[in-house]
Amino acid sequence: MLFRRSLRASAAALALLLPFAAACGGDASADSSSDVSSVTLKVGDTGWKVSEAVLKYAHLDDTPYKVKWNLFQGGDLQLQAMRAGALDLASSSEIPPIFSAADGKPNFKVVAVQRGTTLNQEVIVPKGSKVTDIAGLKGKKVGYVQNTTAHYFLYELLKRAGLTWSDIDAKPLLPNDGLAALNGGSIDAFASYGTSVITAHQQGATTVGSGADILSGNFLWSARDSVLKSPAQRAAAADLIARISKAYAYVRDGHEDGFAKVTAEATHQPVAQAKSDLVAAQKQRPTQARTVGADTIASQQKVADAFTELGALKKHLDVKSFWTTALNSDLKKAL
């Protein structure tokens, strides 16, 4: 409580703590349709619930609505859960919504973009491997996380190396399964991201290819259609997305050490390494939400076209059909 009072003493820190007015208190009560107090959002998170963790660390988890966090190994599984009606908000790269909407009957819309780091998006080989570059993967068994960033950057890296998808024996695997397969010798390389890559390096794996400069850094927030029909749920969703941005701003504002400790405990790596990764990630591309724009839609269209070229999509997909600016106004206020 002393810490919270000290934050309130600073105008700059106060701005970090305040959700937008319509979501908490006076203005919201004037319009019952925007009263978020009865809202419960079922929200997806990937890896080690980093979004939930950063909110707690920045003391921004005291939302005037309820949040039920659900952990998944990848954004693709979040979108599957959303299609099944089990999530209200899903966070993912640009890829999962493409495949989730490919049947032309999505029950969601992309409502916001969270700019984020593309580090730790790599093709790795186990300790002792003789493979030193992507060209060396020809004829090899290569694991990848299907319908995710790993699928996309592996395809693009192969093209740059003069190889095609058919030049490798591609094996779709979940992150944890792929890591086990890599260590067990049943695959020669693995294209993955996040914690699985960090863990692999701790176990002696080396990098032969990176998606850092291939990926856009656009990570998408998708909302179920039922959320968009409710002013209160829209307000809550915008507030939560903005809070995550503000929490990362708090971390960057001289609080890296503490969050590095939180990260290290969750990922089982040395604190010094966790801080180094955190600082590098925020330097490369500070985590920050932004509203939907023509450029963000165009970025995802480029990715969808690549999957059509690969044959993973059976026909051209017009991605703007599942984007909306319905959250733009609320999100601008919240940010």
UniProtKB/TrEMBL annotation:
| Cross-referenced Pfam families | NMT1 (PF09084)
Note the InterPro entries from the entry: Solute-binding_3/MltF_N (IPR001638), SsuA/THI5 (IPR015168)
Organismal lineage: Bacteria, Bacillati, Actinomycetota, Actinomycetes, Kitasatosporales
Q: Which family does the similarity line name?
A: Belongs to the bacterial solute-binding protein SsuA/TauA family.
Give the Solute-binding protein family 3/N-terminal domain ranges: 40-252
> Which residues belong to the signal peptide in this entry?
1-24
| Domain of life, source organism | Bacteria
Recite the UniProt keywords alphabetically.
Answer: Signal
Q: Which PANTHER family match?
A: ABC TRANSPORTER SUBSTRATE-BINDING PROTEIN, ALIPHATIC SULFONATES-BINDING PROTEIN-RELATED
What protein does this entry describe? ABC transporter substrate-binding protein
